[in-house]
Amino acid sequence: MIRCQGVRKAFGDRKVLEDIDLEIAQGTIWGLVGPGASGKSLLCKLLTGLQPADGGHIFIGPDEVSALDENGLMRVRAHFGMLFQNGALFDFMTVERNVAFPLVRAGVPEAEALERARVRLRAVGLSGSESKLPSELSGGMKKRAAIARATIARPPIVIYDEPTAGLDPVTTSKIYDLLRADHAQTGSTVIAVSSDVDGLRSFAREMGMLHGGRLIWNGPAAAIGDADHPVVRQFVRGELEGPL
Amino acid sequence: MNGGAATLVLERIGAGVLAIAREAGGIGVLCGRVVRSLVPPALDARELKLHLYKMGVRSVPIVVLTAFFTGGIMLIQSGIFVRRFGAYGLLGWGVGYAVFREIGPILIALMFSGRVGANNTAELGTMTVTEQIDGLRALAIDPIRYLLVPRVLAMMIMLFCLTLIGDLVAILGGAIMGKLLLGVDFWTFYNSFADNLKTQDLAHGLWKSIAFGGIIALSSCHFGVSVRGGAVGVGRAVNAAVVAAAVGIMLLDYFLTYLLP
Amino acid sequence: MRPDRPAKRLLFGTPWGVSAISLHFELARRIAAQTARGALRGRREPGELVRQMYQIGNRSLLFVAVTLGFIGMVLVYQTCLQVNRITGDLSQVGGEIVKILTHEFGPTLTAMMLATRVGAGIAAEIGSMMVTEQVDALRMCGVEPIEYLIVPRFLASLAMTGILTVFGVAVALALGTLTAYASFHVNPHIFLDFDRVRFGDLVTGILKCIAYGAAIPLVSGHCGLMARGGSEGVGQATTRAVIASSFVVIVLDFGLAGLSYFLLQQP
Lengths: 244, 261, 267
What we know:
Largest sheet of chain A: 6 strands, mixed
Low-confidence stretches of chain C: 1-18
Number of strands of chain C: 0
Structural class of chain A: alpha/beta
Strand order of the largest sheet of chain A: 6-7-8-3-9-10
Oligomer: heterotrimer
Mean pLDDT of chain C: 84
């Protein structure tokens, strides 16, 4: 279970996140939405300890992320698989080496890691691209390769930061199908950040919305469209008139 | 087997030569365009002033520091000779000659290339990647006249001034180190300096600095506006620009050493 | 970097803004500590090390050859000109030039050129990895970025700087000898006088190569890891790396030259 209590983070004078309280149950799919620059990606980085929070507590299972040093954080990060916003594939490695990388670092022999990588790439629909460099892939292909890398070690917690941004509707549906299949197979806890509220609504079980640095809504995904909060309602329905 | 390897090497060499020729040609073409834009001289005075400040005033600290240490280094090198022959009276001359004619202009130009040239390439590169240059063209503003000419002029003027300042600081640095390390007092240093060095020696270096300013400016502008490929491309462009500028500085130094009195 | 505060304006252009100093020191400390540890006993990625040695060494050959070649010619020309004016006897010049190339201009000018090429290259590579979140991705895979990114470059630079210096000195001497013969009719046999090079000169030269070879990747790696903010950030990081590496080379040169002057006391 993932828990945040009173988490806050500011950059200089700019307060990005303030007083975040949330609980994410194990095995659920939690969607996070919000206007641009509302701190969604930052929250993901705080959960994994990639950035230190200014205050509050973050618990990943029994470990308190906010109190660990770099070695401890490395241990906690082993529980995570993360898809970064722009893929963040290593541009000096081929696709299959990229996907095999987490396994190799965990001690799996290289030949076995590469074989498992190829299997995973087939599962995400990228067979034939194993020896390509990331610069030779299209946007959708990069996302899929990055998803393969994030999930190859079957981590108990997976974070997808903008899994469908910039993709056409057909590819978007395919990606959500893939994420659903992965979740069904592994039962992992999934956190998905997206600006695509509609797509996320059909994928996630629970959702939260960030605005003004606070979590202004958190509940079942099916209920977000009828939220009481005017900001949430306007955002989810994409209306022009309202507090935003 | 052998044929394959040899062909590969030749291909690589050929590609390398073509790449160098392409960039050198690009710089030459840009030079021509800049010169043509200077006639008639109608440039944006505000841009020029902005760049003169950014490139000159803000480079003073690093140039002064570099020049000071350079003077110290030349002092130590001259000191080795002077100690061997006991000719302490030649110390000022030794330091002065090397600094004015060669070391001063070259090292200050290299630092300038790193500070201003690289910065300029990065700025122009970011503008290219974010399509601001195309935006200027769409507004019927000639990017060369508006963007590049003020930068080129500012760099040449400022490197001249900075080299002058730097030369003097280097001499000062040499004099101070001479006193501290070798016990040569300031008057001896100054006399040998003043007696043996002519204005011509200083001018020799200053002419070089103008030329160095030009090549740094053209190189940084050329690579800045021909950036391809986002953040990675900008980094590569800065790299290429400083390398090209360094080669250009050494080349020009060689020819000008022969041509200038 | 925001230039509003007057104090910052004085030092603008150098990455010494008041709030950034502590960040810099912290990162510098970590880089120094982890590079030392990683170099001595860390996981070795032989493929990566070779790739870096190629990037730093092979790809700089032409650049070093051209720049050191021209410098060699200018150095010989200026020196012969002056000596001609004073004593007219050019037989000593060759030996002196070999000596000074060995302990001063060879290592230092090669390092200045490498600070430009290798420094910019390392900062650009690491910087663009920072801004595209590849460094974060490395951390998520349990990799310590300093060990993975900087240590191979550090080792490669240590190895290659010395080799490139020897190469550069050779080119400078070759072209310089040519110049002496063509412009001043000095016999190459007389010019290439290696007898004057003392053990102290060699030690100084080697120490400088090691110092420069260590400093350049550390400084430019540091600048790369401090990159923030898209292509602008990469540009700034690369710029800072070039200046900082060049400046560190000059300061090290001053320090080591002074040290050798006082300790070695050679004729």
